[in-house]
Design a protein that fits this description.
heterodimer, A: alpha+beta, Phosphorylase Kinase, domain 1, Transferase(Phosphotransferase), domain 1, 6-stranded antiparallel sheet, 3-stranded antiparallel sheet, 29 helices, B: mainly alpha, 7 helices
């Protein structure tokens, strides 16, 4: 980053150039040439300077739909059937993902598939991709018709990138397993490779069914209930006439229990002759009644219980569920856990179980379900995206109460307890990561939840309403933008930066070891403009940006009130001049030094007290002088008498001498 | 009766005797002296200052004015005629009496000068205080500062 990039004047020159962005010295992005979206992400034309034949696209993930936190790791995954990501780069200040261009039409436009073609050209190649992902320990979570491309002929399909959008965020409901469908799109998390296998199965079913009707990512409760009661395979593929082998394969892939789904490696050589048997979930002969519903499986019990916590708690307390689990389902281990929870429940007199206990009951009943907390379902690793979604205007992707619930769950230790109860791997690490972020970011209030968005996703760009459209994901890029085109709004409660900009800069600074600064934001000490100045000064020296003239000029007029801390007018004038000089040279650190100088203020204060005392004393003296009329004291009178007598004596001697002479 | 009072009595008695003797042997001198020193004699009775300070102060002035006529009277061997002639010359008694007044005037003038000088230094002091007060008032704000740290804190608390 060149230092002169930061002067506002050259900022304009740069914007003319900013239509052409060079990434990794070889990919030249033309930001004026918009291409059709790829994987739900805006795409632009890009040329590879080293290879004229390469057909590439540049993906620009929007601020509120950021790239995956593990995007760089995902970009390293290579498979012949995957549109490879060649670079994930933010050297231009915003995240750009350079990716192979699709080699054909998306499957959403090509829906006539035979079973054998599907097995060979869709399931096998995508299974190979998933195998590579599985080996890398990550998930794709964007397997849906518009992200799989068919080159035509007998060539296998290619899977589009999964790193350009939050996991499962744009997935239509029918391509998601129950464990993900229960959550709002932002709360789905990265899931497991079994979720990708489900999506692949769902894609296959959709293609065999003629590709009609894509559901929306947000899913109504009635659809979920139907899938819980009948099982996903029945709901999604029940109406299709399939060969027994393919039906067995798809039933296994669409199993609601993630452990029952085949691994990607099992699907690599899948054919019509390879048989899969789907494990059916254990179902009770005698149903149990929760509220008005009758349920036969633990999953259905968990789902209805979450909607009717008092009834569920009653059943647990009375030991009904324990007996039902033992006698009807033979789940003695689960029954034993339920007994322990039942004892815990009998100790409290409340009819409704605490959110923590309810969460535990549900996690024990079906360990593959997401964390349930006061009516919201979410995965721990999705908390960063939930925080992002909660900042979205309108907030449709996450309920307004979601941030509060997350904070409550974390503070009550719910995340760690869930991580121990769930059968889904990775939740423990995710819970620890979230706790570390909560601690590092000093997130103690619901209003601070927004900080998690930056702390948990290093590629998250600044979400301030002023600059969200600019996709500024590097701290220096935000500084540059603040220095250039940004015009601050006049508001009593904010300074130059709003809450999002501050959180963004602090989180980026946190990664660079400026951790202790988080305390400042929540507030002890100075006026908003001063705090912003202090933070920006640190950022200026941290990123060695050189003079920030634009920022200095924008802040300067608002610092005048803080100079009033000095009561000495001469000092104030001198400080004002020094401040103006520092601003003129764009030196924010110097400006901060001039304005924030507690020692000088303390000295000024003590000098002021001395001056006030002197003034009081002088005023008293003045009053005393005013009262006292000048009077001739007796001593003075006596002295004057002596003087007059002496003069008389002189006159007498003079007269005598005169007489003697004459 | 104190020793001083007894001494005063005896002194008065001596004064009386001296006056009588002077009247008998030096009538011219006495006459001239009485007339010329008349203001002193009057002042002697009306002077309320301690130890007749006013009279003592005026005495040298009177004396200075009386030397010349006394010398003339001495040259004419103290004759009453010369004394009368001197007394009838208006310049002589008027000069003597004015010189007594001059003594009083010198005192008053000295007092006035003292008073004025005192007043001057007084005013100087007053002006000095006023100047310093103005200097402090110009240099310092008097109201408590508006954005004291506490105020900033509460502002931040709301953020």
């Amino acid at each position: 980053m060149a230092e002169d990039d930061f002067s506002p004047d050259t900022g304009d020159g740069r914007s003319a150039d900013s239509d052409r962005i060079t990434v990794e010295d070889r990919y030249v992005i033309d930001a004026t040439r918009r291409l059709p979206d790829l994987a739900g992400c805006p795409a632009y034309a890009v040329k590879d300077a080293l290879s004229a034949q390469a057909t590439l696209v540049a993906l620009a993930p929007p601020a509120f739909q950021p790239a995956r936190a593990e995007a760089s790791q995902m970009a390293r995954v290579r498979s012949p059937h995957l549109l490879a990501a060649h670079a994930v780069d933010e050297a231009s200040g915003s995240i750009w993902i350079i990716c192979d261009a699709p080699n054909g039409a998306p499957l959403s436009q090509n829906t006539g598939w035979s079973e054998s073609a599907l097995l060979e050209r869709v399931i096998q190649p995508i299974a190979a991709v998933l195998h590579a992902y599985n080996a890398a320990g990550i998930t794709h979570r964007a397997i849906r018709p518009d992200n799989v491309f068919d080159p035509g002929g007998r060539a296998p399909v290619k899977l589009g990138p999964g790193l350009a959008a939050p996991p499962a965020f744009l997935q239509p409901g029918q391509f998601e397993p129950l464990s993900s469908l229960l959550c709002s799109p932002a709360a789905r998390g990265a899931g497991t490779i079994a979720d990708d296998v489900f999506s692949l199965g769902a894609l296959s079913v959709w293609l065999l069914g003629g590709g009609s009707g894509l559901q929306s990512p947000t899913h109504p409760d009635t659809n979920i209930e139907e899938r819980i009661l009948r099982g996903s395979f029945d709901v999604l593929a029940g109406h299709l006439s399939l060969s027994p082998e393919v039906a067995g394969l798809l039933a296994a892939m669409l199993a609601d229990d993630p452990d029952a789904r085949p691994a990607p490696a099992d699907l690599l050589n899948v054919s019509e002759r390879k048989a899969f048997t789907a494990r059916k979930q254990v179902s009770a002969d005698a149903p149990i009644r929760v509220g008005s519903a009758q349920v036969r499986t633990t999953r259905a019990l968990a789902w209805h219980g979450a909607r009717n916590p008092i009834a569920l708690a009653n059943l647990v307390r009375r030991g009904v569920i324990e007996r039902w689990l033992t006698h009807e389902l033979g789940l003695t281990a689960v029954a034993a856990r339920m007994t322990a929870i039942g004892k815990e429940l009998t100790m409290t007199e409340d009819a409704a179980p605490s959110p923590s206990v309810l969460m535990e009951i549900i996690a024990v009943l079906d360990p593959s379900l997401p964390l349930h907390w006061q009516g919201e379902w979410f995965w721990i690793d999705a908390i960063g995206m939930i925080a992002t979604a909660s900042l979205m205007s309108g907030g449709v992707q996450a309920g307004p109460e979601f941030p509060r619930l997350i904070l409550e769950a974390a503070q009550a230790g719910g995340l760690l307890r869930f991580a121990q109860a769930t059968s889904i791997t990775g939740q423990n690490i995710a819970a620890q990561t979230v706790h570390a972020a909560l601690h590092n970011g000093r997130v103690e209030r619901v209003a601070d939840i927004g900080r998690l968005t930056y702390l948990l996703n290093p590629g998250q760009s600044c979400l301030s309403p002023d600059c969200a459209g600019k996709r500024l994901s590097a701290a220096w890029a935000l500084l540059q933008w603040l220095n250039g085109e940004f015009t601050p709004t006049t508001s009593g409660t904010r300074g130059l930066l709003d809450r999002q900009m501050t959180a963004f800069l602090l989180a980026r600074g946190d990664r660079s070891g400026l951790i202790e600064q988080f305390g400042n934001e929540s507030g002890d000490g100075y006026l908003p403009w001063l705090k912003d100045l202090a933070l920006l000064a640190q950022m200026q020296s941290r990123y060695q940006t050189g003079p920030l003239l634009g920022v200095a000029r924008k802040i300067l007029p608002h610092l005048t009130p803080s100079l009033k801390l000095w009561r000495n007018r001469t000092t104030r004038t001198r400080r004002g001049e020094e401040l103006a000089a520092a601003a003129e040279s764009g030196d924010l650190a110097r400006m901060a030094e001039v304005v924030v100088d507690p020692r000088s203020v303390a000295k000024d204060r003590s000098d002021w007290l001395v001056a006030q005392n002197e003034m009081r004393r002088l005023t008293q003296e003045q009053i005393a002088l005013g009262k006292k009329l000048p009077d001739v004291s007796p001593t003075l009178r006596a002295e004057m008498l002596q003087v007059a007598t002496a003069l008389g004596a002189l006159a007498a001697i003079g007269s005598l001498c005169l007489e003697v002479i004459s | 009766m104190t020793v001083a009072a007894r001494m005063g009595h005896s002194m008065k008695w001596v004064h009386g005797l001296a006056c009588g003797a002077a009247l008998a042997w030096l009538p011219g001198y006495l006459l001239l002296a009485v007339v010329l020193f008349l203001p002193l004699i009057v002042a002697y009775f009306f002077d309320r200052s301690q130890n007749q300070a006013l009279v003592r102060m005026m005495l040298p002035y009177e004396f200075a004015a009386a030397i010349s006529p006394m010398y003339q009277l001495w040259l004419s061997e103290g004759s009453v005629d010369t004394a009368l002639r001197l007394l009838t010359d208006p310049v002589v008694p008027i000069t003597a009496w004015l010189s007594a007044g001059l003594g009083w005037f010198v005192l008053e003038a000295a007092l006035l000068v003292a008073k004025l000088s005192k007043q001057y230094s007084f005013n100087k002091e007053k002006n000095e205080i006023t100047r310093r007060l103005k200097e402090i008032a110009d240099e310092w704000d008097h109201d408590p500062p508006p954005s004291e740290v506490g105020g900033a804190k509460s502002e931040l608390g709301r953020r």
